[in-house]
Amino acid sequence: MADQTNVSGEQRAYSPAATIATRTVRLYAQYLGRGPTKARTTLNTNVVLVMFGQTMTRAEHNLVAAGEAEAVRWMRRKLERSMREEAVAIVEEVTRRKVTAYMSDIDTDANTAVLVFALDPRPETGQAQVAEAH
Question: How many CB atoms lie within 10 A of CB 69?
């Protein structure tokens, strides 16, 4: 379990999936000025998937409404590429595994974004862990 410090300074234990969800939401907020309002992380043996809901900013919504969805996708790809090192560091720290691949995308119609991390391969266990950001 990963530890997080709450507002009162006490340590609380969170699952690795919850820790990754919370920390990647904070990372998005640093880069975009606001984080997504929904985040869900799914961990299996060799993949970490973080799905963000209600992720677009007001400016991005306005661009999509003006027919510029591709501009939003292009900008997000650039931002997510620039935050790659920090996002990978979060996943590697929490999972204590090496990230071998990082992918990202956004669906502007669904207002949903995703980060996918491939981990150094291990034999599959068939187990999965799911958590949402608080």
Answer: 16
Ramachandran angles phi, psi of 119, nearest 5°: -100, 160
The angle subtended at Cα 30 by Cα 29 and Cα 31, nearest 5°, is 90
Q: Let me know if residue 60 belongs to a domain.
A: yes
Tokens at 118, concatenated: 């491939």
Tell me the pLDDT tens digit for each residue of 95-127: 999 999 999 999 999 999 999 999 999 888 787
Range of the structural domain that residue 50 is part of:
12-120
